[in-house]
Amino acid sequence: MYCTHRSWLHAWLQRRLDDSGDAADLTQDTFIRVLTSRHAEAPRESRALLTHIAKGLLVDHWRRRDVERAYLEAVAHLPEPQQPSPETRLLLIEALMAVETMLASLPPLTRRLFLMAQLDGLTLAQIAEQSGKPVITVRRHIQRALLACMKTQ
Q: Which listed site, 34, 79, 110, 139, has its alpha carbon 20 to 30 Å from 57?
């Protein structure tokens, strides 16, 4: 499968990324996913499987790039001595990606209520008032989000 489809997949990814190095990395990651999955035996629809896996990796790649860009913009104003080291930056971006992934996994209402509590600092009563949901429902949604946070650790 690798010998047959590597060049095609690399070209397909490169057209979407405009970066040969990133395309090569995602090509390898795609084949690693195939090898470590239940699809290890070459299925008849190899290109469909590879495309499906590569699309997921592309989404992850673009998400990570967006998170990294936002982080770099947030710390750009810091003076040079206060800039995080490359190692710290990598750890922070990994942590931000874990938070982003966890938030994306939440139902939209749960995510919205959780962010109202965490980012806006609203109380349960204030969130209930703004969302039109009973306090008990708001509490339940925030509890679900907190449990999801603990599972990510």
A: 110
